[in-house]
Structure formats: C-alpha cells, structure tokens
Amino acid sequence: MGAFRVSLQTLVATVQSILASDKGLLAMDESTSTCNKRFAEIGIPQTVEFRRAYRELIISTPGLGDSIGGVILYDETIRQKTESGIPFLNLLADAGIVPGIKVDAGTTELAGHPAEKITEGLDRLRERLSEYAQMGARFAKWRSVITIGNDRPSLGCLEANAHDLARYAALCQEAGLVPIVEPEVLMDGDHSLQRCAEVTEQTLHTVFDQLYRQGVALEGMILKPNMVLPGQLCPAQSSVNDVADATVNTLFRTVPAAVPAVAFLSGGQSAQDASARLNAMNIRFRSRMPWVLAFSFARAIQQPALEIWRGEKSNTELAQRALSHRASCNRSARRGEYSAALEDR
Question: Active-site residue 49, yes or no?
Fold first, then answer.
C-alpha cells in the first residue's frame, strides 16, 4: 500500500502540473484517418509528411505553454520529430508542456445493440502503457461514445463502455500515468437540453460506479465529459447560461469531490461557443465547485489555425497566431475573464 501512495502522489503532481496557472489541455490526438479527413476537406495532401508538418506547427507555436499545460498525442505523433530533427517530446519539454497519449483504438459497433458503439484497445494495453511511460508520456486518454436516440443509450451500452473506461484507468494508474476518462455523449440528433442532461447524468453515474469497482484513485484522474447541450438539430438551442447551469448541475449530482479536475471536450461546438460556455460556468459556479473546470479541446483550438495553414509553409506564422489566440481565450475562460471582445484582438 505504501508504494501505491507514492504512485498516487506522482499522479496528483502530474494533474497539478497540467492544470497549473489556469491552463488546459490541447487534444491533438486525431487518428490518421481523422486527420486525413480534415485535410481532405480543405485540400491538404493526406501524407505522413503533411501530418508531421501540421503537428510541428502546433507544438512549435510560440508561447503555447502559456495557456496549454498538457497535450494529448497520437501514436504516430509521439514518435515524430521536427523538420530539423528535434523530437516533438523535447520541444514540449522545453515549452513546459506535459505530454500525454491517446491509447484507445477507436469505436466499433456494439454487438447486440444496433446503432451503439464500444471502444476497442484493451488488448495488450498494459504493455503499450509501459512503452509510452518509458518514452516520456505522463498521462493517457480513452474515449467512449454514447449516442442519444430512440431507446438509446441502452443500459448494456452504458455499462460496457463504463467498464472499459474503468479498466483502462486502473491500468494507467498501475503504469504511473494519469488517466483522462472521456465518456462523450454526442451532440448528434434533435434531443433537448433536458434529455442530454438526463443521459449525461446516467452516463457519469455508471462510469463512477465502475471506477470505484475497479479501484481507481479518483484523486489521480481527470474527467473529460461533454458539456450538456441540446442536439445540433434541436429547434430550441439554449443560451450560454442555460448550458452552463445544466452542465454544472449535472456534475454536482454525479462527480465526486475527490476528482481534481473536469476538462471538457468541445465535441463539435464552435470555438467561440466552447469558450463562452466554459467561461459562464466559471463565473456562475466557481465558489461552489469542488473541482477545477478546464478544457481539453481539439477542433475548438486547432480548426481556425488549420484553415489558415492549408498545408502552405508561408501561412505557418499566421496559423500559429490563431492557435495561440484560441488557447489564450480558453485560459481566460478558465478564469471567468473571457468575452467576445477578446475575439477582436
């Protein structure tokens, strides 16, 4: 037990390093297929060299470490180097950014549950986590996907995904890595804000039950949930404050105080909406929350920069400014200091 306490102290210290000084996480862990899809949408060649160049653009952004405390990498990315031969991990260390790694293998159809997904990747996960830890990773991420629809989500889907998240988290802590636990209730559909709140509450209750059963130390993890939002096709879209209230009240009912941080995913929100909603939560609830509310955004930080870059080296500096700006906006949102006026700077 003494050895575990030492390990838990290490995990807690990693969480504190990632989230110090009101920073958040940048999720640059797109799989090869997802990255290629985004490149194809704006005409960037889908090659390993262009993926490397794009990731170098992100990691080498001046001042990135001012707002970003941790980055989630993909297996291809954690092994890559800059054009001049410097390992990405060295660049991150120089910027004071903690490196992490996506370890799930993506989603597939859940047998017996039409239109529902299960995440794969537990096979040989212990060995993969050991390798990543030796390379320098200090945390990991696993994403499960929950859909809202007629008779969805099923209890079978919720329990299967929660069990896998908990087994993954226990293996991470065994390897000395902080697990980021990501149960994402998707925005797809026409469901209401209230329906999303109900499903998110059910999902988080199921996840924390399984985390308890698998012996996961809550003090040494980060929760990465969705914000509570109406479906993208819902005719009644909610105000910023309504989203903030629904989200935090759902967390109050489900997330133990021992969890140090909740770092939201952006999940298809616009960059500005994601910042404004996080900001409202921190303004309205800061004095009542037992956990830090931070961000772990992907597209909501990267997309503006990607659209500027478009694979052209001459656009790199302008793209990096856009990336730095979005990261800075989200740091302001953690402080409750974001406003639309920041977008004009």
Answer: no
